[in-house]
Amino acid sequence: MKHYTRDNFKLTHSVGFLLNKARNLMLMEMDLALKDLDITGQQMGILLSLMRGNATTPFELSKLLGIDTGLMTRMLDKLEGKGLLGRERSVEDRRVVNLLLTAKGREVADRIPDIAPEVLNARLGKFSKAEFDEFRRLLGKFLEG
């Protein structure tokens, strides 16, 4: 089904515009909440993914988090510069770079679950349980394409 036509398309009412605005709002709020940890909302995703073993290489992180490889490299450089992670060449395949959290990186990542849920809960506070479940379901369906 086609939901948009030339005649009914209004930028500020489009799903793309609203999703982008919601994303920017969430990142701004998350960045503010994570300020004391000296990381951003996007960097949070990297640290948590590494801590939980969801990804171990820049490519895996890019794919998981939906971040292009150029931006991922710059973000990893910043995190490495802050002493939160290190890079190590794979022994099996020298082309592969494995990422490892440092002790400081693990400490920071361990504090994120005390902060991030509060930011999300504040934004989702007006949602009922059923609305929250439906919202997640619909976003999942949207992402499936």
Automatic annotation (TrEMBL):
Q: Does the keyword Thylakoid apply?
A: no
Which keywords annotate this record?
DNA-binding, Transcription, Transcription regulation
The record's listing under PROSITE patterns reads: HTH_MARR_2 (PS50995)
What InterPro entries does this protein's entry cite?
Answer: HTH_MarR-typ, WH-like_DNA-bd_sf, WH_DNA-bd_sf
Q: Which domain of life is it from?
A: Bacteria
Ranges annotated as spanning the membrane: none
Return the SMART domains for the record.
HTH_MARR
Indicate yes or no for the key word Methyltransferase.
no
UniProt signal peptide: none
Q: Name one Pfam family in it.
A: MarR
Q: Which GO terms describe its molecular function?
A: DNA binding; DNA-binding transcription factor activity
The HTH marR-type domain covers: 8-144
Listed name of the protein: MarR family transcriptional regulator
Q: What is the lineage of its organism?
A: Bacteria, Pseudomonadati, Pseudomonadota, Betaproteobacteria, Burkholderiales
